[in-house]
Amino acid sequence: MSLATIINELWRFFKDNIVRILIGALVISVITVGARYFITDILLSDRQEAADYLEDVYTQEPSSFKAVVTIEDGQIFSNPHLFDDYFTSPQVVEAVEETTGIEFQETIDSEKTLELFKTPTFRGSISAVRDNASGVFIFRVLAGKTAEENLAIANAYRDLLASGEIPFMDNQFADITLEPVIGEVLDTEEYLSLPTVETLSVYRSNNARSLIVYGVLGFVVGLILTSGIVFLQRLRKSKINYAFEYAWDLDDQHILVHSSHEGAVYNVQDAIRIPAVNLRWIVSQSALSEDFEDTNDSSERFISKLQEVKSDEQAPKQIVIVIQANHTEKRWLKDQMTMATLYNVPLKLVHVY
């Protein structure tokens, strides 16, 4: 088989089926956009509400304070996560809400709705991180609806920490090194565990840009998928249209001829009759043009299948098998190529499309 021929035929295949492929790609693109909308805005509507709420919260300025926590023997306590886990426990949140008059449990619940649980990579709206260089704990509050609410909540947690009235602080002491202030005191690009508006990017509702991205992605996938389906459908057909639907040996001659070109009859004839030989068998499942077959040339014999040849006939010098697109059957071609090899003469395949 010739690689150049296969590439040429694949290109012809895509040109012939471009409308079907494009329609299929557009349908899949529309389905992709529709599925995106259905999943995010209908099935996950509760998540969307939680994401919208958190987006309002996360756009506010946080409030932070710093503290050094030491153990009784003077060593610095090194696990800040123990504190923010305790600070977000239901009973502590309820107590802080009662003290401040600010309700922020919904912020913590919304994070749970989005499965934003406290992990080493995400600490949530009430978070604590440790400065590895100094051992200082930085407590960050981003749970209120305004910066002032965040400051009030941070002050309540500051007082709780300084009071030492925390179950696991019997042998620990907290020294406040920075009183609660409004504003970001941490580099959120360095401390990726801190929540920001970008944390919610995956949960944002459908917008024009998002739908365009999914539409383009669906279109590309649709092109590939539809092309594959159309290609497989082509391979399952019983009649040949393209050269990639059959195989031939490297020793065999293979010629593609376009029948619709001007003067195509002569082009087909030239492809079949050149070079001149003493006896040529022309094998075609379907009849060729009357002008072509109506000849008195004794060096040519037209045959519909090689099985019709009688055993006492003179063997040819060349066998030409004519493949007519959408007329020649794959099974017939396979049988004729198998029979042709038995004559041990040059074999030429002329594919007319």
In sequence order, what are the helices and strands, one letter per element? HHHEHHHEEHEHEHEHEEHE
**End-to-end gap:** 18 Å
* Dominant shape: rod-shaped
Count every beta strand, where a strand is a DSSP E run of 2 or more residues.
9
Strand numbers in spatial order across the main sheet = 5-9-8-6-7
List low-pLDDT spans: none
Tally of helical segments: 11
Mean pLDDT: 88
Q: What's the oligomerization state?
A: single chain
Alpha-carbon Rg, integer = 39 Å
Largest sheet: 5 strands, parallel
> What structural category do the secondary elements indicate?
alpha/beta
Secondary structure: helix percent: 40-55%
Q: In percent, how much strand structure appears in the residues?
A: 15-25%
Organism: Ruoffia tabacinasalis
Keywords: Membrane, Transmembrane, Transmembrane helix
Protein name: Capsular polysaccharide biosynthesis protein
Transmembrane segments: 21-39, 211-232
Folded structure, characterized:
It comes from Ruoffia tabacinasalis. It contains eleven helices and nine strands. It has helices at 3-16, 18-43, 45-58, 81-87, 90-100, 105-113, 147-163, 208-236, 264-273, 290-293, 330-341; strands spanning 63-71, 126-130, 137-141, 172-182, 253-257, 280-284, 300-303, 318-324, 347-352.
Key attributes of the depicted protein:
5-stranded parallel β-sheet; membrane; transmembrane; Capsular polysaccharide biosynthesis protein; 11 helices; 353 residues; 9 strands; 4-stranded antiparallel β-sheet; alpha/beta; 43% helix; transmembrane helix; single chain
